[in-house]
Amino acid sequence: MGEAVIEARKVGLTFQTADGPVHALKDVDLRIGRGEFVSFIGPSGCGKTTFLRTIAALETPTAGVLSVNGMTPDAARRARAYGYVFQAPGLYPWRTIAGNVSLPLEIMGFPRPERQRRIAEVLELVDLSGFGGRFPWQLSGGMQQRASIARALAFDADILLMDEPFGALDEIVRDRLNEALLALWAKTGKTIGFVTHSIPEAVYLSTRIVVMSPRPGRITRVVDSPLPRDRPLEIRDSPDFIALAHEVREALREGHGDD
C-alpha cells in the first residue's frame, strides 16, 4: 500500500433521534493508500454509505479521527480533494451534458477556455465525446451515470468517492460501466472508494474489499485481491475470481451479513 490518503482511527457515528440514539458506525479503523480501488460491501443499513459520507464531510463522526489527504474531511472538501458520485446521476435537466459537467468548474471560478478544455477531456475519458450538447433526457441511464462521473472528474481531484453508482442499471449496462471504470482508473491513477451491494462487482473492481457488519457498522474483514489490475470481464470465470467471491461471501456470513 502506498501513501495513505484516507485514514480512519476508531471512527464512530451516533445519530440522535426522537426514538433515541442510532449507532451507525463503531470503531472503524481503515487506511486507504494512494491509487487503491477499495470497495465497501455489507447488508443494507450497515453504514457503507454513511462511512463514505463521513469521508466527504457530508456527515460528521461523533468519535475517533478521520483524515483525507492529511486534512480533516471538511478541509479536504474545501480543498476540492475528492469528487463524489451519487446513486442517481443528479443531472440538471435544463443544462446540457457539457453544462452539467461545467457546473463545479463554474463554481470554482475556472476561466471559460479552461472549462472547455476540461469538459472535452473528461467526456472523452467516459466515452461521451460528441454528447456534450445533448440534454440528460436524451441519454440512456448508463450514459447519464457516465456524465455524472465526468462531472466528478472535471476538477481533477485525486480521490473519487462512488456510492452505488451502477445499482439501478441492468446487468449488461453495469458490466460495460464496470469495464469503463477500470479503464478510467488505469488511465488516471485515482484513489477510488466504491460502495456496492454486489459481490461480483466488488471482486471485479477492487484491490481490496472492506466487509462491514450490520448496525452499528464495523469492519469485520478486509479482503485483499490477488487479481491482476488488467481484468477483462472473462476473469469472472477464473478459479481465482470464484475463490475470492467465495471468501467475501463467507466474510459477509460470518458478520451476519447478506449479499
From TrEMBL:
Lineage top rank: taxon: Bacteria
Stretches assigned to the ABC transporter domain: 8-235
Keywords, ordered alphabetically: ATP-binding, Nucleotide-binding, Transport
An annotated Gene Ontology molecular function: ATP binding
Family (UniProt): Belongs to the ABC transporter superfamily.
Name of this chain's protein: ABC transporter ATP-binding protein
